[in-house]
Structures are given as structure tokens and as C-alpha cells.
Amino acid sequence: xxxxxxxxxxxxxxxxxxxxxxxxxxxDEVRHLTLNISSATFNYLEGQSIGxxxxxxxxxxxxxxxxxxxxxxxxxxxxxxxxxxxxxxxRCFYIDEISGEKHPGVASNFLCDLRSGDQVEIVxxxxxxxxxxxxxxxxxxxxxxxxxxxxxxxxxxxxxxERSDWKxxxxxxxGARTGMDKLYLNDKNDDLANYYDxxxxxxxxxxxxxxxxxxxxxxxxxxxxHATEVWAMILNEKTHxxxxxxxxxxxxxxxxxxxxxxxxETWAAQKQExxxxxxxxxxxxx
Length: 286
Description:
Layout: E1 12-21, E2 30-36, E3 49-54, E4 65-70, E5 84-90, E6 93-95, E7 102-104, H1 106-113, E8 119-126, E9 139-145, H2 150-162, E10 170-176, E11 201-207, H3 219-225, H4 227-235, E12 239-246, H5 248-261, H6 264-276, E13 280-285
Parallel strand pairs: 9-10, 9-12, 10-11, 12-13
Antiparallel strand pairs: 1-2, 1-8, 2-5, 3-4, 3-8, 6-7
């Protein structure tokens, strides 16, 4: 990441209040980190991100290595504590294309190795394009893969815990490799299950058809199964669409929504209308 694109001149020192693994052993390690920032003077909204500054030295003489992470709690703080903020982190590795060697991801491994009491510098918050609408009659169509679930956890906490009058439909399409890889919906942490009794909420899960071959979750297949409702929501002027996860998700959705709408031209026109009316928001990484 090019840190010159962001103002990192005024970092805050955060203390790790808790680092909880939220995936079972035998699956990819994903941790929910709660950071205490008692000295913070900033406010944030659901859908924004913070930058984590990883201490050096780093390659090419860079003083800082920064990685953005979506805030996973509502604006009132983690569990209502304004001094605490949470992020969702998957321990990542990458393969060097030339040598074939496996290397740990700098920021993710740094964060996953932190324990309660450790300190970390953060900057931000950044981004204002991924916010819940003010009108509680609006519909929310949320589509996420992997740690892309983080901003939706914040959304759900906000609209159901702090805006109890929410009347619009809320549909969450969530992709994971297997049932054990679901984040905030498994035996280790089931935060999102708290909203299953809400009349307006429904979660639709999508899994990999061949997880042992590292095939991605079939999020397009899940959308296709619910095509009638999805397309009706998209055509509704009160629907806001949010997509978060790996950048490849956008192409998958373009393909399936072109099929559902009848043609690529029809979907392209409808997508542009969503963009123009500020009802299409994305957060992609990787």
C-alpha cells in the first residue's frame, strides 16, 4: 500500500484490550481484535476504516507499512465502549512468484501475534462512501466474502441496537470456504446470530463447492437462488447495495446480475443508476 495516499502524520497509540480467535482450529486463523484508544479525539461511522502502522524496518527502506482494516463495530464503540474499536484480521501468507517461497503477510501476522496489553499505532479513520442510509425505511442488500463481513457487523449493530425503528428489508449474502470458516457465525463467535430474530433480517450463506481445492465461495450461486428477491430489491428506489471482500467479487456479481436482469446492457444501466443515486457502495481488497 502506498502510504503517501493517506495522512499518517498524527497516529494514535492503541492498546490491545482483547485478541480473540473467531475461527476453529484447523481452519484459517481469523482474529477479532479490540483496541483501546482512550486518547482518541476522532469520531467514526459504520463502514469506515482505520490504518494500522506496522513498525519497521521494512523492505526498500520504507519507514512505515500501513494496512487498512474495516471497523467492525458501530459508532458507539465495541460493546458500547466509546474508547474501544474492533477490527477483523485474517493471518495471511503469500507466495513469491519468482522463488516460490512462502512469506507471511506483514500487517496481518503482526496483528495476529499481538496479545492483550500490547501497543499498536493506528491512523484514520478513512472513507465515507460506505455508510448506512438515514431513512429507516430503506432496504439494505449486503454482499460480503471473508473478512468483508466486518463492516456489515457494524451496520447490523447500528441499525438494530441503536436504531430500533428499522423497517426496511436487510439481506446479508455471506460467502465462506466452509461452514467452519464463517466469521461471526460459528461456534467460536456468533455475534450475527443475535439478529436472526429480527423480522426484517435474513442471512443467506454461500460456501465453496470444492473447499479442498481452494475454490472460492459460490456467492454468485447464492444470489442466483434468490434472484427474484434480489432483482426486486435492486429495482426498488429505497434499496442500497453494499459489497465488501476480494476484488474478484465484483466480476462475479456483474456476471450473475447480468444473467438475472436479462443482459449485460440492462445490468450495466441499472448499476450506473445505483451509482448515480449513491446507492451502490463497494469496499474491495486484494
